[in-house]
Amino acid sequence: MSNDLSRWCATIAASDRPTYHAIADAIADDIQAGRLRAQQKLPPLRALARSLGVNFSTAARGYAEAAQRGLIDGRTGSGSYVRGEIKSDPVRRASTVGPIDMSMNMPPEPGSAALRARLREGFASLGAGYDIYDLLRYQEFGGARRDREAGAAWMARRLPNADPANILVCPGAHSALLGLSASLLRAGDTLACEAISYPGMKGIAAHLGIRPVGLPADRDGLDPDAFAALCAADPPKALYINPTLNNPTTATLPAERRAAIAEIALRYGVPIIEDDPYGCLPKQRLAPIATYAPELTFHVAGLSKVLGAGLRIGYLVTPNVRYTARVSSTMATLSVMANPAMIQLATRWIEDGTVRAATLAIREESMARQQLAARVLAGIDYRSQPEAFHLWLPVPAPWNRIELATRLQQHGIAAVVSDAFAMRAPAPEAVRICLGGTASREDCHRHLEIIHDAIKHLPAMAAGGYGEPFVDYQVGRNTA
C-alpha cells in the first residue's frame, strides 16, 4: 500500500490536471498496468490526503471520480476496493464513493436481499386477482372499504380507534395537506405553525394565499405558551404541526406539550393539521395529538418515509363523517384520485406485513447511520434523534449557511439551507443534512467526514488553493 502511495504521489505531482482527476488517473494507470488487482483494497482516504499534502475533501473527490469511471467501489465500514466480479443482487445499484444528494429527505434503502425480493414480488404480482380494467378506471376518491381498513390497521399502533369510515386514501401525504388547507382555510387566513417548518407547507400557503404565522420552538418543539398567546390575541384558522422527528429540526414534542396544545386548540376552536410522516419510526412512540383532541384534529400519515416516495400513498384521518365528505370533495377536485394500482399494492403490503418489515429495516438502518454521525461529528453541535434519517446542523461562526452549503456542494454534497424552512425572517444559520436515499452507509460515512472537515476549517482556508470550481447553491432546491 505504501508503494501505491509513493507511486501515486510522483504521478500526481507530474500531472497538469486538477488533483482529483490526477488521483483517478493514477488508479486507472495502475489497474491497466496490473499493479492493482480486482478486489484489492485501496489506501485509506486520510492516508492518501496526508501523502499528497491535500485536504480530505480533495482526496475523497479523487476516489469519487474513480468510482464514476467505474474503477472502484466503496464498501460499508471497510473502505474502497478495485472493482471486480462479486456476487450481489443483480438489480442493486452498485455503491459508489461519488457525490450523493443529502438534501432529499428519503429513507435509507435497506440492504436486505430478502426485503428487496419481497418488494419485487409485490410489484410482479400487481393486478393479480383483479380485472385489470378495474385498475384503469376512475375510482371514487378515498379508496374502497378494504383499503381504508388497511390504512386503519397500519396506523393502529398510533391511532387505535381510527374509524375506517373517516379515513381517506390520498395520492401522497403532501396531496392530503393541500386538500386540507384548501378545505379549512381561505386566502388571507392565518395558519399557525412553527417558525421552522416543512417547506411543502410553506409552498402550499403561498399558493393558496394563506398567511403562515411562525411560532417559537425549542429542542422539544412548539412552545404551547406562544400558541396560547396567539390564540388569545387573534385565533388562527388552523394549526399545522409536525410533532415527531420534525422536518427539519428532528424535535419530538413531549406528551405534556401535545396535551397542552390540544387543550388550547379545543379552548379556542382551532383545527389541528397533524403531519406525522415519521411517527412509526421511533421505538418509543408518543400518542399523536389526535388522541388528545380527536374532534378537531386531522391526522396525516403516508408510506413515503417507510417505503418510498414513488408509491404516493397517504392516509388522512378526519374528525367525523361530515369533515370526511367535505375534504373528500375538495381533494377529488384537486387530484381526482390516488392511483388504483398503487392503492392495491399498499393495501397488500400492509396486510401481508411487508410495510411492517420495511419500517423495521429502515429504523435499523437509520439508527446505524445516526450512530455513525455521532462518531464522525463528535464535538460539533447538531440536533437529531436515534431513529431519524436527517439531522439539523446549526452553522458555527465564522461560517454562514450559504458559504457552508456552497462549499459542500463543491464536493458533491447537496444540503438545504434554513431559508427553505423559515416561516418568518430572519432564517437561522443552519442547514439540514439527510442520511438516507440511495447512498450506502460507506458513502454516508465519507460525506459526513467531508462535512466535519469543512466545519473545522475557516471559510477563507476552505475556499482557496484547491483549484476547484465555485458552484452557486440554490436555496430551496430538493426539500422533501
From TrEMBL:
<dbReference type="InterPro" id="IPR036388">
    <property type="entry name" value="WH-like_DNA-bd_sf"/>
</dbReference>
<keyword id="KW-0663">Pyridoxal phosphate</keyword>
<dbReference type="InterPro" id="IPR000524">
    <property type="entry name" value="Tscrpt_reg_HTH_GntR"/>
</dbReference>
<dbReference type="GO" id="GO:0016212">
    <property type="term" value="F:kynurenine-oxoglutarate transaminase activity"/>
</dbReference>
<keyword id="KW-0032">Aminotransferase</keyword>
<dbReference type="GO" id="GO:0030170">
    <property type="term" value="F:pyridoxal phosphate binding"/>
</dbReference>
<dbReference type="InterPro" id="IPR036390">
    <property type="entry name" value="WH_DNA-bd_sf"/>
</dbReference>
<protein>
    <submittedName>
        <fullName>Transcriptional regulatory protein</fullName>
        <ecNumber>2.6.1.7</ecNumber>
    </submittedName>
</protein>
<keyword id="KW-0804">Transcription</keyword>
<dbReference type="InterPro" id="IPR015421">
    <property type="entry name" value="PyrdxlP-dep_Trfase_major"/>
</dbReference>
<dbReference type="GO" id="GO:0003677">
    <property type="term" value="F:DNA binding"/>
</dbReference>
<dbReference type="Pfam" id="PF00155">
    <property type="entry name" value="Aminotran_1_2"/>
</dbReference>
<keyword id="KW-0805">Transcription regulation</keyword>
<keyword id="KW-0238">DNA-binding</keyword>
<comment type="similarity">
    <text>In the C-terminal section; belongs to the class-I pyridoxal-phosphate-dependent aminotransferase family.</text>
</comment>
<feature type="domain" description="HTH gntR-type">
    <location>
        <begin position="17"/>
        <end position="85"/>
    </location>
</feature>
<dbReference type="InterPro" id="IPR004839">
    <property type="entry name" value="Aminotransferase_I/II_large"/>
</dbReference>
<dbReference type="InterPro" id="IPR051446">
    <property type="entry name" value="HTH_trans_reg/aminotransferase"/>
</dbReference>
<keyword id="KW-0808">Transferase</keyword>
<dbReference type="InterPro" id="IPR015424">
    <property type="entry name" value="PyrdxlP-dep_Trfase"/>
</dbReference>
<dbReference type="GO" id="GO:0003700">
    <property type="term" value="F:DNA-binding transcription factor activity"/>
</dbReference>
<dbReference type="Pfam" id="PF00392">
    <property type="entry name" value="GntR"/>
</dbReference>
